[in-house]
UniProtKB/TrEMBL annotation:
Residues 38-57 bind DNA. NCBIfam families: ScbR_bind_reg. Keywords: DNA-binding, Transcription, Transcription regulation. It comes from Streptomyces osmaniensis. This is ScbR family autoregulator-binding transcription factor. The keyword Lyase does not apply. The lineage of its organism: Bacteria, Bacillati, Actinomycetota, Actinomycetes, Kitasatosporales. It comes from the Bacteria.
Amino acid sequence: MHTVEGLMAQQDRAIRTRRSILEAAARVFGERGYASATVEEILNRAGVTRGALYFHFSSKEEVALGVLEAQLPLDRLPERSSKLQKLVDHGMVMAHRLQHDPLVQAGVSLALDQGARELDRDAAFRAWTEQLEQILTEARSQGELLPHIDVTDTAEFLTGAFAGVQAMSQASCNRADLGRRVSILLRHVLPSISTPALLAALDLSPDRGERVFEEYEANSPEPAAPVTQG
């Protein structure tokens, strides 16, 4: 009979092993690109057996999909009375994670990797767009958006604009200024969609993502992912 403690220990080991595989894969995909990366190199980086990897993932493609999923925004960020502030927080936290979390960095790289033809790279963009569309719909229901705003068009535009801004920041300075660049993006976009009365109350500071992420971790018993300084 397995004890409850024993089962919990097994689950903890499984979670750590899966995370180790994804982190190793993130490094390999980041260095070589999806097409040139091999399962063997991922195994060597992770320090796990082939059996351990295939317990969690059936193929290199599944590993890559796991990395892609890690780039999605946290789904339990602190709630805000203003839904447009929630929208800002999602973007700024993503910028912060892109600066520090190798899994998120690799997920974005895979989504933009033209050589990863067998992956459904569009799924990451669709998921991000759907989350933004949901927040914008909530904002509209609270009277925070200008009457003519189409939430689907706006969500798609913000997703594409963020992808471009982060790519520029990566090429320029390895994303060191990403918080500032995203802040500038939002300062240009939000006046065209937000009611004037709400706009002045929004916090668009470049360090907003770091502060919100710290708030999330302080109030979460199980943080979604450790952030590694890099």
